[in-house]
Amino acid sequence: MAVVPPRQVAILSIANYSTICNEVSAQAADEAMEDLRQMAIGCGVDSGYMRLFQNNTILLRLDDLPRQGFLDAIHCLGARARSLETPGTKHIKPVVRVGAMSERALRSFVNDAAADLLSYMNHVDCPAAFLAGDELDIWQQFESSGIELMSHEQLKYMDPFTGLLRPERFFELLQGSIDEDDQRTKDIHVLYFDIDDFKSYNRAFSYDAGDELLMFLARQIAEAFPSDVVSHLSIDRFAVLTSASDIVRKCAIVHETVRSFNKAFAPEVKCGAFKLEPGLESAHLAMDCAKLACESIKGRYDIACRFFDDKLRERMFTRRYVAHHAEKAVSEHWIQAFAQPVVYTRTGDVCGFEALARWIDPEIGMLSPAVFIPTLEEAHLIHKLDLCIVDEVCQHLAKRMQAGETRLHASVNLSRLDFGLCDAVQEISTRCDNLGIPHSMLAIEVTESALDSDLNLRREMDRFRTAGFEVWMDDFGCGYSSLNLLKDYEFDVLKVDMEFLRDMESNRRSKTIVASVIRMAKRLGIRTLVEGVETKEQCDFLREAGCDMMQGYLFGKPRPLEIAAI
After folding, report:
1. How much is the pTM?
2. How far apart are CA 507 and CA 327, in angstroms?
C-alpha cells in the first residue's frame, strides 16, 4: 500500500505588524505583508496556495512538495525572513515568524493551532517552530536544523499568551508531586505570584500596557526559575513548582526587576510560598495556602515574599469555617447588623446610620469583617449576608416609623457579586415594600473599586435610582478611576475615603484635596459624607469646607443596631 504523506501547512507572520501600523502607517504595514508574500513566491510557493489568515499572517499550503522539498522551503523562508527589508517601514524592521505544521496536527488540535503556535513563538521569541501530530518521528530533521520541534500535546499544555504552562497541566504536575512519597516532597514548594492592584495599572496606562507588563513578568519568573515548572494561572497570577533553596532571593530579583519596568507606577509583585507536607489533601489546597500567604502581604512595601506559617494556617481554618457555616450563621443570627451614626455637619444632629455586618460566633467569638467578607465573596455566598443585613435594617426602620420617626435614613453596603448572585434591586425593593418603608429611606453603598467599566453594574445602579433608592459611592478617592466614575455614574452621595484625614493636621495637601472634592461635588449636585472623623479639629475643618455629613468615632463607634445611639 502506498504511503500518503500528510498535508503540509506553513505560516508566515509579521509579529510587530501593529507597531508598524501605529508608529509608521497602516499602508507601510500592508506593504510589508506584500513583501512577505513576494518572498514566499521567491521560495517557490505557488501564490494560488496562499491565503490571508489574519491581518499579519499568511497561510501557505505545501501539499505537493515531498518531505525534503518541504524542509527546504521552510529553511528558505526562514533565511529570507531574517533579512527581510521594506523601505516603507523606515526605521522599524519587520519581525517575521515562520511556523510549519502538518494538517493532521492542525485538524487534531482543539484550539486554533496556527494562532496558538504563532502566539507561542511571539512570546518566547522563537523565530521558527514546527508543530507535528502523530507523525512526529517523520520530521526529526527539523530539530537538527535550527527549528524548534513541538508536539500537539506540548502546545496543548502551553498558554499561548505567555508561553508558560496552562493551569490545568500545572495542577496535574502539582498533584503528582503531592502523591509521591513524603521523603521526596519535603523540599518542594508551590509559589503564587500576583501583581498588587493590577486593575489600577490597566486603568492608568491602558490594557495593552498591562499585557506588556504581564509578558515581562512571565519572562522574569521563567528566568528566575529556569529548571522549575512555571504556569500562567490567570490574568496577573502565576505559579511555580520548585525545589530551589533560595526562593526569597529569587523572588526579590523578580520583585525589583518588575518595579523598574515602569518607574512611574513601580508595580508591586507579591509572592506566597507553601512547602508541600505529608497528608496534604489536594493540589488546590496547596495553592490556596500559597495564595493566602501572598494576599497577606498585599499593600505592604517592606516585604515581597511570605511563607505559609501557623498564623496563616489558623486564618485558613477560620476562612474554611466561615464558608461551611455561612448559612447557619444567617439562620441562627450569628450575623448581626451594627450601626454607626451619621451626623449633619452643620448642626451635629444624627441624620442616619451605616449598617455594618458583624459575625459573633458561639465557638470562635467575634470574627473580623476582613476575614468573613472576602471569604463569602470567594464562596459566592456574600448575597446571603448582605440580604440578612438589609432584613435587619428594614425591620429596625419599620419600628422607628411606627414610633413616629420618618426622617432617619440608613445605608447598606452591597458587594459587586450580589448583582450576579441575585436580583438585588428586586430583593431589596420587596423587603422595603413588605414593611411599608419608603425607598428614599435606604441608600445603597457600592465601593469605588467595584464600579469599573462593567455595564451590567451600571444598569443595576440606574435601576436602584429609578426605584427611588439613593446610590452612594463608598471610599471615593482610594483608586485611579474616581473622576471617570463621576462622569459615567449618577451618585447621590460621595463618601470620601478616611485615608485623606489620617495626616490632615500635618499635611496641608490633605485639606486642599478634601476641600476641592467637596466643592466639585457641590457643583455636580452631589452631597458629601466624610468618614473616619475622630477629632474636633477635623470636624471644624469639614464644617468650614462645606461638607454635608460626617461619620466616625467622634460621633460613635459601630454598636448593635438596637442599642446604638441613633
Report:
1. 0.60
2. 46
